[in-house]
Structure formats: C-alpha cells, structure tokens
Amino acid sequence: MDSFKDKTVVITGGATGIGFGLAKRFGTEGAKIIIGEPRQAQLDTAIAELKSLGIDAAAMVMDVTDPKSMEAFADFTWDTYGGAHVLINNAGIAIGRKAMVDLPLEDLHRLMNVNFFGVWHGAATFGKRMIAQGEPAAIYNLASENAFFNAVTNSASYIASKQAVRGLTEAMRDEIPDFIKVGMIVPGFVASDMTKGSEQFAMDADTFADKVVEQIRAGEFYVVTHSYNMVRIKPIHDEIEAAYERNAPRYEGDDEYDVPTLIAKLRARRDGA
After folding, report:
1. Is 158 a catalytic residue?
2. Can you spell out the DSSP letters for 24-59?
3. Structural domain span for residue 234
4. Could you say which of 158, 222, 244, 251 is catalytic?
5. C-alpha angle with apex 169: 133 to 233, nearest 5 degrees?
C-alpha cells in the first residue's frame, strides 16, 4: 500500500501509547482514523488532539474481548467511512509479574481475553468484511519482542499471549487472500500505559510509529524496531538448530514425515485420480 491518503485505518486501543502514536502517524498522511477502546475519557482526549492536527477521526467505546462489541465496532467503521483498509489489532494489557505456578487463573484468562482473543476477534470480524470488500487491505497484529524471547522474568502469561499472537498471525498469512496483507508488529520497550514510571528508558511512541508505518507501507510481515533484539533471538535459533543436528540430523529422503509434503502428495494423488 503505497499511500494511506483517504484510506481508513482502524486501531483498537488507539487512544493512548502505541495505538495513539500510530493514529497520529497514519492521520498525518491523510488517512481517516477510527479508534476504539473501553474508556470514553481517553477517546475524547485522543479525538480532540487528532482533530487539532487536522486529522479526520472518529471513536467508539468498545471491548475487544466481546465479539458482539467488535461487530458493532466494524458496523461503526463502515457506517462512518464506508469501509476499512488497514486494521491494527493493538489493544493489550499487562498484569503484575508473578511466577506461573502462583498466577491466579482468572488473571491469566483476563490477559488472554484481551491480548489474544481480542486480536482474534478483530482479525476475524474485520477480515471477513475486508474479504467481501474486495480491495487491497492490511491486517497487522501487535505482538511483542516476547513473541521471540523472554524479555522479562515471571511474565509467563504475557509471554504466552504474545507467542499466541505470533502463531495466529503466521497462520493468517496462509489463510487470508493475497490482496489483504497480513503482518505482525514486534515492539520492544516503548512508552505506553504499560511502561508508566519508566518512560525515560523506553522508545518514544511517535518514533516507534514512524518506523512501523514505513514498514507497513513496504508490506513487511515482521515489523521490527529494536535492533538489540537479535542479540536475544539468535542464540534461540542456534539452540534449536543444534538440537536437530544432534538428535534429528538431515538424511536423504527425510521429508517422508514432513506434513506439508505429505499433504501435497495426497492432493496430487486425489487430483490425479
């Protein structure tokens, strides 16, 4: 998508932090902005600032954990601007750090409902409508550096939620029609509601948004911003590769148990029958 001018960009959790930074960045390129989140006061403040910048924007109180609320949010988008061209599934929360064995299940469910099922609801609801719309579009899901490595100890619930988003997004790439670009945004430490009290150590949300929007424009799948992450990621890949070399080394004909290869053979056999 070379230009976002006159395109409709929808951002969940778009009133603060990363979401608001992206709303401003897309809006300054002439995009029409729709933001949603549960807090009316934050939405009012965000819309006022967006409009003061000359950005065409609208907002709706909504809850990503509720499929009916997500459907209403999509209705609002189509009623307001006639469709959607970019969806950023940005809404997310964190809970207090606690070892996995000590974490109350209700806390885990609350976090997963927002960080994973909220993304699922957004992608499914808007994805269906974008497919029917039949125009070039994009769906980008917010993951985290924690989708690749454990950045913070005693955060198993958050890490699991972001790795689940990674799995979902990689599966969507194979399932969604090619005219809808799918990708995953991988923030590191960025100033937001979740980093209050330590913003001086975090990447500014506007700087982050600049990097993200350019990569979405280029059609990148992995939208990345924090260079040092590779120092953490490479040893994990090396460890996986070493485990295979020790215990399951390559051999001639080793694709005999490869599931995609077997599926292709079965399809070829079926089609040839």
Report:
1. yes
2. HHHHTTT-EEEEEES-HHHHHHHHHHHHHTT--EEE
3. 228-273
4. 158
5. 150
User: Do residues 160 and 60 touch, judged by C-beta distance below 8 A?
Assistant: no
Residue 230's pLDDT is what? 97
User: Is 1 part of any domain?
Assistant: no
Q: Per-residue DSSP letters for 209-253?
A: HHHHHHHHHTT-SEEE--TTHHHHHHHHHHHHHHHHHHHS---TT
CA–CA–CA angle 43, 46, 48 (5° rounding): 105
In a shared domain, residues 177 and 63: yes
Q: Count structural domains, the chain.
A: 2
Residue 222 shares a structural domain with residue 240:
no
Q: Could you tell me if 221 and 235 lie in one domain?
A: no
Residue found under tokens 């709706």 = 60
Q: What is the pLDDT of residues 46-87, one digit of tens each?
A: 999 999 999 999 999 999 999 999 999 999 999 999 999 999
Residues 153 and 184 in one domain: yes
